[in-house]
Every structure is written in structure tokens, then in C-alpha cells.
Amino acid sequence: MRLGTHKPRGRGYRASGRGRDTVYNERNPMTDEKIDDLKGRAKEAAGDLTDDDSLKREGKIDRASGSVKDAVGDVADKAKDVARGD
């Protein structure tokens, strides 16, 4: 087996795929974009519950960050496809 080709065992592992950092477990891959979106939603909900405007803003920023990462990843994927001639 070549170095770096095995999948570590355990709860999950991080791997780079298609230019995006992804957390894998046995059932569901979570991209950084999804993690940022979920984190942002949680912060916004917590801000609503506690009436904390700064926490709401942090949540919106995290969600926007996830959207930007997703868009950049899509553009990078398209560029790779064009470069390969797909």
C-alpha cells in the first residue's frame, strides 16, 4: 500500500476531494460549506432566543461564508472540467 492512500478508521476523517475539504463518516459527507451553513443557522437561532444581535450577525456571516465557498468551489469545478475538455 502506498503512503497516504488508506482511509483511517474511526468516527470520521478529513479528505480533500474536488478542491473542497470534506469530513466523511460512514453515512454522510459534510462539506465545509454545509458545516458553515449549519453553524450559521445555529448561531442565528441562538441569537433569536437570547435576543443577542451580535450572535445573529455572526450566524449570517457564517452562512454567507458557506455560500461563497460553495460558489467558489463550483467555479473551480467548472474550470477543471473545461481544462480537461469535458
Taken from the alpha-carbon principal axes, the silhouette is elongated
What is the tally of beta strands?
A: 3
**Residue share in helices?**
55-70%
Succession of helices and strands: EEEHH
Largest sheet: 3 strands, antiparallel
Describe the 3D structure:
The protein has 86 residues and is of the alpha+beta class. It has two helices and three strands; from the N terminus they run βββαα. The chain has helices at 32-50, 53-84, and strands spanning 13-17, 20-24, 30-31. A hairpin with a 5-residue loop joins strand 2 and strand 3 (30-31). Helix 1 (32-50) packs antiparallel against helix 2.
Keywords:
single chain, 86 residues, alpha+beta, 3-stranded antiparallel β-sheet, 2 helices, 59% helix, elongated
Concise synopsis of the structure shown:
The protein is α+β, with helices and mostly antiparallel strands and 86 residues long. Helix content is 59%, strand content 14%.
Which helices and strands occur, and which strands form pairs?
Elements (H helix, E strand, L loop, with lengths): L12 E5 L2 E5 L5 E2 H19 L2 H32 L2
Antiparallel strand pairs: 1-2, 2-3
